[in-house]
Design brief:
This protein has seven helices and 13 strands. With 348 residues, it is an alpha+beta fold.
């Protein structure tokens, strides 16, 4: 009969347990029987024999515990276990299961994250060098400072809490607030808030921190209505050059048309073409201001009435050498441009 190491250890432990129980029984029985003997020497010999059997039983119990705990590892250190060849055919059957690596072709599907545009947004935000050069604070910021995610709203209450916060806004947006909470800030440390439209920086503010070490704060932007373009915006918070928090919101709808770009009014040039054009040269450095009032009525005989020019009694110093003429309003353009001859020549 062939026994492996594990079976042999279990057998030895079982035998030692039986011997320990048998020896304990004999020892107790010998001690009890010795008490009934009348002779001292025989009683002592029986008692000594009984205690020897009890001690031997204890030794068997200790040996069984040690063998059960340490015998098998020690035996394996001298006789390392070998895999039975009967199990290898079951292992050779696994190549049929190893055909499942055809499922490992799914990494071609896992390549789809490269198609997603999110990796372009996931990199950690960084402080632009142009803004970093404009830092004015010399206080070292606390690297353990923390900022909460931002909440966007068009209004804040008296406690600087957002009223009707949202992440989607309809044009025209107007004044927008980005509210946050903070902790472990160092007064005087440089902090910055950057507003991005897609990947383009559209607004920023950077100043030394003038708040407390913890509380509620906000950054806001109030551009012209036509500057709120449709798309996704992101606000990033920095302490020094370390990024702390960022959040995004979306603007929907086309922005209003830029009214300031349509304000130039060259229509005043058309009003100057109605009045007569007077050309006069003068060599004097100081000339009085002459105001010509052409007649508002026109005679059908095509003989225009003339009126001498009005000479101001107090001459003003002109910026140019030529006198300034201001033609009066006319209700109807003349058919023949009248010629005006001043009745008086100004003296230098």
């Amino acid at each position: 009969m062939k026994l492996d190491i594990h079976t042999a250890v279990i057998t030895i432990v079982a035998l030692l347990t039986i011997f320990a129980i048998f020896g304990l029984w004999i020892g107790i029985r010998s001690i009890r029987k010795a008490r009934t003997l009348k002779f001292f020497r025989m009683r002592r010999d029986r008692i000594v024999t009984g205690w020897k059997m009890v001690f031997l039983s204890i030794v068997f119990v200790i040996a069984a515990i040690l063998i059960n705990r340490f015998a098998e590892p020690i035996a394996y250190s001298f006789f390392p276990p070998t895999s039975t060849p009967t199990f290898t055919p079951t292992i050779t059957l696994t190549p049929t299961i190893s055909l499942t690596p055809t499922i490992t072709q799914t990494p071609t599907i896992t390549l789809t994250p490269s198609v997603s545009d999110t990796p372009t947004i996931t990199p950690t935000p960084h402080m632009p060098l142009a803004i970093e050069d404009s830092f004015t604070s010399t206080t070292t910021p606390n690297p353990a400072s923390v900022f909460s995610p931002l909440q966007f709203a068009k209004e804040l209450d008296e406690n600087f809490l957002p009223i009707d916060p949202a992440t989607v806004f309809q044009n025209p947006v107007g004044h927008l607030y980005a509210q946050f909470t903070y902790d472990k800030m160092t007064p005087g440390a440089q902090w910055s808030a950057l507003w991005y439209f897609s990947d383009q920086l559209v607004y920023y503010e950077t100043n030394p921190w003038d708040g407390g070490t913890g509380g509620i704060g906000y950054t806001d932007w109030n551009p012209e209505p036509y500057q709120w373009f449709e798309g996704e915006y992101e606000v990033q918070i920095f302490v020094g050059t370390s990024w702390k928090s960022s959040s995004r919101f979306t603007v929907e709808g086309q922005p209003p048309t830029a009214v300031p770009s349509l304000t130039p009014t060259p229509t005043r040039t058309s009003t100057t073409t109605i009045g007569p054009t007077l050309t006069r040269t003068s060599t004097s450095t100081h000339a009085p201001t002459l105001t010509v009032h052409p007649s508002d009525t026109r005679v059908p005989s095509q003989t225009p009435t003339r009126r001498p020019p009005y000479i101001s009694p107090t001459p003003t110093k002109a910026n140019t050498h030529a006198p300034t003429f201001t033609p009066g309003p006319t209700t109807q353009p003349p058919t023949h441009a009248p010629t005006f001859t001043p009745s008086r020549t100004p003296t230098p």
